[in-house]
Design a protein that fits this description.
314 residues; alpha/beta; five-stranded mixed β-sheet; 12 strands
Length: 314
């Protein structure tokens, strides 16, 4: 449909920057945020929206209460515009593809703080040398993160494939696998060398979540009918730091429990029930699959994952 719209126009009237602005407006549903995204003034973005409305013969964004929502025609344009811009970027890129030593690029990735701490953070020292102009914006997966990925509002998502039954509809690669362990403070007087189901049910319990993602631990414990005395809920990444110095019990991935700065203050125990593990998986779309910069990022992630596995940290 989008190609038919362009064909009906005089192409010399179409400024590519208008399509960049349209992409930002449809992603942000806000003139202010779209202006911030493109580093232009709000009045300039409002003027650009007016030009787009005249060009397309459609209001594009309409008021719905206090929010702006895209029109049906605008929604139909969102993915084709993003695909066209991605194809144009690849067309205009150097024949040699992406040069991490010289090219600037910012990748936006949705991932939990657990992934940042145990996978991305150890990679940063290497990337600061190999790709000094490459930046990462990492945000927790929110409601509708699958739609954000499908519409290429983000470059990639890293989530446990166990919580995403439809992960196969995206291109994907497992980065690492992990198992769950019970964690208490090393001096916790309520726990000996092992943990019973009764203790799991009666001890003060720290539960966690990762943004909009459900906790695989809580899902499994619920399915087993195991009650918990939940006294605190936070994100996963800070769980081991919260447990330290308290009588709380939590269940987290072993890689996080073994984080070097906190491990000496903790005691790790096997869960008293059988819990399935997790497979943190990188997801991306067909649009980005052939992009040289995206290919480089995926290769670096895969090499880093392999190195961690060889070192026995996976």
């Amino acid at each position: 449909m989008f190609l038919r719209i362009l064909a009906a126009m005089e192409l010399n009237r179409v400024d590519l920057n208008l399509l960049v602005a349209l992409d930002a407006l449809l992603a942000e549903h806000s003139v202010t945020r779209a202006a911030e995204r493109l580093h232009v003034g709000q009045s300039a973005m409002s003027s650009t929206l007016g030009r787009l409305r005249k060009l397309l013969g459609d209001p594009i964004l309409v008021r719905d209460g206090r929010a702006l929502v895209p029109t049906p025609r605008a929604l139909a344009l969102e993915l084709p515009v993003r695909r066209l811009l991605a194809d144009t970027e690849r067309l205009l890129s150097d024949a040699g593809g992406f040069d991490p030593a010289a090219d600037a690029r910012t990748f936006t990735i949705l991932a939990s703080d657990f992934v940042v701490m145990t996978f991305l953070q150890p990679l940063l020292a290497r990337l600061s040398r190999e790709a000094p102009a490459v930046r990462f914006t990492v945000l927790p997966p929110g409601e509708g993160f699958e739609e954000d990925l499908r519409r290429n509002r983000v470059d990639a998502v890293v989530v446990p494939r166990e919580i995403l039954p439809g992960y196969r509809k995206f291109r994907h690669q497992v980065l690492f696998r992990d198992r769950y362990v019970c964690v208490v403070d090393r001096d916790n007087p309520d726990v000996g060398g092992s943990l019973s189901v009764e203790q799991l049910s009666t001890m003060p319990y720290h539960a966690w979540g990762s943004g909009a993602l459900p906790s695989l631990v809580e899902i499994q414990l619920d399915s087993l009918g195991i009650e918990r005395r939940i006294e605190l809920v936070t994100t996963m990444g800070i769980a081991p730091f919260v447990v330290r110095g308290t009588r709380l019990l939590t269940i987290i991935p072993s890689r996080l429990a073994s984080y070097p700065s906190i491990l000496p203050d903790l005691r790790l125990l096997e869960p008293p029930v059988l819990l399935g593990g997790l497979s943190e998986t990188l997801l991306w779309t067909d649009i980005n699959d052939a992009d040289p910069g995206h290919r480089w990022m995926r290769r670096v992630f895969a090499e880093h994952a392999a190195a961690l596995a060889a070192a026995g940290t996976q």
